């Protein structure tokens, strides 16, 4: 496939540009008979939406999703589900200057060399705006996983630039603009963001993404390993530069006597594996971490070249998140859910019913 | 696909088990007219082969590859290239005990729950031995990339357990059993491995993988990004738990004024991106790092459960690498080469000839 | 893929139901830099459109296509091209009775058993209306094929029910409502259709589909043969029950001395192969024939069963073509064009540039 | 995929050339836990094997299959099943002359233009010998279909050149070298073949292929329709030029009142649909017919051109079937079985368990 379709059996074909008439996706392979309405999708879209706090892009549009097909009298029919989101707030004038020069850290240079033509309006196809349809599709996947297996997907921010964010509990995540798992640091993070904005600079972020209530047996043995597909999905999110499963890079300095999770009659004794052994889910919680680079669009002037290879200075105006990592949280959840539903359907195809209850798995934590 | 085929246009379908009659693969989509013989493949197979030093599995078999198809009078014909490697040294008796218990850190538990049956002989399908056909296929990909674009793929070890390995130069890598980029630390690494072996323990490793002489424009914009496919390929290698592109997790604490690589008339001023922007290659060197967990098979007894969920102790005998990361070096090279050739063919399909020379790219280093 | 995406490298993902809010498709993999506007697509849509003559469905809607993405300043960018067609004339009341019984010859029975739910409005997903997005995508493919290779795709009707239609010339096809290749029979065909309509009955049709200016070398050797993919595409069109390539079923009674097309310095001496040898195009004209069953929706009452398996009588009201084969002509052209562009891109990937001029091919006719 | 892999979830990757060291395939996606041995496969291979009667190629080799992987202690494990058939009787000297000229009706011309290189030994990749691995894979599919659903696949010859073959009963098919469904015509067919051989000529054939005990609900609604995939599979068999489903080309002259199969409480009243409605199986018998062209390799000299485009005469020596259609019978069965198992797995993925018993379906015959 040319790269706009995600998944094998629960496929999501994404279309649109940041400032074109509309963005959206077509979900194919959704099991029939599941209750579904726009309301089931809009919630996650709103979590990702720009303009929700002063720390994210001030571009303000509702991102209202319309279901064009695949649902009859409130239930999925097994036919493709097309989701449409009209672009309403575009301000193309902000982006005219992009066409002549290549913005550092952006896809301008590579798109130009690959295609010989590019849509400069808001970054065109390379804009993080194209994650909105994935969040919408992910909401459909989450609903099915929850109803079928009780699987829940969640993500939060554990580091904002130089600021580590202490994990106090998932209950805090919905209640602050940073998707932070505590309340005590919010003021400090606000101040940190204000300082960055004043400096015309930006910062990166680290997120953890998890799935609980995991079935055992999802994933293929050699390629399309569950962890490999998760790495593919996460690294494919705009600005992500690193992915870890379980102990991740910490595994390098661990001994085999430490890393290998022992088993007991009531479950695993630890979860360094992150819930995947041999590419297949163990039934423990899936544990993923991702690194997100700092926003490339900053007000500080940067050196670049123009279409003729001559030196040029790039100054970015317009509306940009000082940390794209903030809004990456619902995106990462969606992408993980899309990987899981695809593998659940693949498992059903070859091995029959998915094991939703494996009492030997207690999903202990280290 | 059920997970034994890698790639879209240059596909490698892998088959076999560690102790079955044979392992191998079928390469489909190789461009016609390239000179190819077993000799072009055997070299990389020998680099991955067990028994090459006292630090890797002492299992000793030649891993001699036979080309069964796709080559006529020394040239590829465009037909599928089947590669066969017979298993000659199997010692199944070493592995009989595996069938009743689940080895910590291994795929025994997940295969059992997924399939309800598993081949215990040497880990069956989950054995790292199945990487041998990928190394063979990777050698074909490397040859084509070199001849078409002058692209070279290489990897080395930068950390062995707690021991960081200083980078002195690529020229050292072929001359030591650790694929280390220096000579001065080899004695220390030997001692470290001997200590581990005595302790009946194992350690992880960190590798860097690179491609030089990169064309610009490889990769798809949304999914099948070049970096996403690299993450998929690397995380799919046995025991890999983390993948970084360019600055990787260091991006989290970088500012946008630092991370975004500026452009100058003679090329990029830095390479924090790792050679990928917006999922598409910039023409700079590709820079990847991976984390590999410690070998799960160790002589130290470990707690587990048997098929009935009752407590059991697992002691591993037989021949195992104290650090599977050592032999992962040629494997990582092969997987990167397979990603690159696939994207080169995909680029030709949609955009025509690949740009092998982009003078504005000097591939500067930070 | 779950079956709503056509093609490997030039993919068309189709969505919608006959009476939902909209139908459409997403084209992915279109080469960049081609001039494209709605006007390039609307023409073929109008040829397929219902209500264009009294011999086709009187449902009257403009089928106006909107390009939602993938085009910037009138040129394709390489990004997916989403095409949207709003449903404007739906009259759902005509179709209420369908939900309780299974209409003979329709997909009601199979959808019900496969999905346990179905959208009865106008046949929902099984309606021939879903061919409209394929006609739109085919128009994009036709334009690229014409501009790249000078390849032209065309189709006409050679039999309407019991009425054979003499081939006089392609120039007549656009000038009559039957896509017939002559003018002399039009009155007779009109009368035939009127008689069918009075009888509350319907008839089948036979079409030929051709491509001229064919490049040589399109198609894969074993599977994905060009003729196999054409058979797949044609048999996938609603109501098609048979496909022939070249001599087709006539080959059964041909001798080898007759069937095998001899070669001469100025080209092939005949074209019994239909332009394909070993699954690969010869450069001769592609010659395909298809059989289309009679319209299943007829006014004559028919026996069936209801959801409880009890006898029921089905009477169809509402608007239906007495011969669905008429409107299949532009659909068949579109599907052939989609097969050809996909194989052209596949050829570029593995073998490089497509041979657009092979002087040794004169495409002689028997 | 580059065209050597068949199927989506039960994939068969085929490799080899007629006169290379070996041919074979890799089956991926076979459900685990099915008893399987070489003996389950060899039977169908022997039915296809050359040298079994004086009417088929006298090339004599055992076509002994070896299972290289995917089976442990006599049961499938879910891992890929590699099947290897060594080429033992090659006589390359028979084929030397092919390299300079293009044999009419063969793939020589197209392979040469597509790849710029070709393996002339026995037709290389284009030889019907490459159907042997498909017959082997089909035997695995047949076994699973039989055990899961009681589905049986069968084929027979209904016309040999100008000789129609009366259908008396399936029980006759295994008992004559023509796979003919009667005994009374065998002498006449023998005589017909002898006459052809004397004349240095060849003839085509027509086969019917069926599946009984069909589940309801197999097939996808828009593309990957069951009948479309069957057409793809059948047209992909060497020398096939036409495919019909159910009434096929007869549908053209049928009225809607005749063609549309009515339903009754005890099942369908007829089977003009061939067991497929809207691309999905009805549970009736699947009914397919295919046309096979005459063997292209005949002793009668034919006109052609050489590599320089100069006139040349081609005389074929060596061993060839006067009617390739004879041996196509087990091949067609295998390809149908491969389509069915793939769709059964696809159905399980999206819709859950396959309906193996639908009492309302009596599969009446016209």
UniProtKB/TrEMBL annotation, chains A, B, C, D:
InterPro entries cross-referenced by the UniProt entry: Chorismate_synth (IPR000453), Chorismate_synth_AroC_sf (IPR035904), Chorismate_synthase_CS (IPR020541)
EC number: 4.2.3.5
Family annotation (PROSITE patterns): CHORISMATE_SYNTHASE_1 (PS00787), CHORISMATE_SYNTHASE_2 (PS00788), CHORISMATE_SYNTHASE_3 (PS00789)
A GO CC annotation given for this chain: cytosol
Record field: catalytic activity: 5-O-(1-carboxyvinyl)-3-phosphoshikimate = chorismate + phosphate
Binding locations of NADP(+): 48, 54
GO biological process, alphabetically ordered: amino acid biosynthetic process; aromatic amino acid family biosynthetic process; chorismate biosynthetic process
Pfam family, one: Chorismate_synt
Cofactor: FMNH2
Functional note: This reaction introduces a second double bond into the aromatic ring system.
Family, per entry: Belongs to the chorismate synthase family.
Subunit structure: Homotetramer.
Protein name: Chorismate synthase
Source organism of the structure: Aquabacterium commune
Gene expressing this chain: aroC
């Amino acid at each position: 496939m040319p790269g706009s379709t995600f998944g094998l059996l629960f496929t999501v074909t994404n279309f649109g540009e940041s400032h074109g008439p509309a963005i959206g996706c077509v979900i194919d392979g959704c099991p029939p008979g599941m209750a579904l309405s726009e309301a089931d999708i809009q919630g996650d879209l709103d979590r990702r939406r720009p303009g929700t706090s002063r720390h994210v892009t001030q571009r303000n549009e509702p991102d209202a999703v319309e279901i064009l097909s695949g649902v009859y009298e409130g239930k999925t029919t097994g036919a493709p589900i097309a989701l449409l989101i009209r672009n309403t707030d575009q301000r193309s004038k902000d982006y005219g200057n992009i066409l002549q020069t290549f913005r550092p850290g952006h896809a301008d240079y590579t798109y130009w060399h690959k295609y010989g033509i590019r849509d400069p309006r808001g970054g065109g196809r390379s804009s993080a705006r194209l994650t909105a349809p994935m969040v919408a599709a992910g909401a459909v996947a989450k609903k099915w996983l929850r109803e079928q297996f009780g699987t829940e997907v969640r993500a939060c921010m554990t580091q904002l630039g130089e600021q580590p964010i202490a994990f106090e509990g998932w209950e805090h995540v919905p209640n602050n603009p940073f998707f932070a798992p505590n309340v005590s640091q919010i003021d400090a993070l606000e101040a940190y963001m204000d300082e960055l904005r004043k400096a015309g600079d930006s910062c990166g972020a680290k997120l953890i993404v998890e799935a609980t209530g995991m079935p055992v047996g999802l994933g293929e043995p050699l390629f399309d390993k569950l962890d490999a597909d998760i790495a593919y999905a996460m690294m494919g999110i705009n600005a992500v530069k690193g992915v870890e499963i379980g102990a991740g890079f910490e595994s390098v300095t661990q001994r085999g006597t430490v890393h290998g999770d022992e088993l007991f009659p009531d479950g695993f004794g630890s979860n360094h594996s992150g819930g995947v052994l041999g590419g297949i889910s163990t039934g423990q919680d899936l544990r993923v971490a991702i690194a997100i680079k700092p926003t490339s669009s900053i007000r500080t002037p940067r050196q670049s070249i123009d279409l003729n290879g001559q030196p040029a200075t790039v100054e970015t105006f317009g509306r940009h998140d000082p940390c794209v990592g903030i809004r990456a949280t619902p995106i990462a959840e969606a992408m993980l859910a899309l990987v899981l539903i695809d593998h659940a359907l693949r498992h059903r195809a070859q091995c029959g019913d998915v094991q939703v209850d494996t009492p030997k798995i207690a999903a202990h934590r280290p």
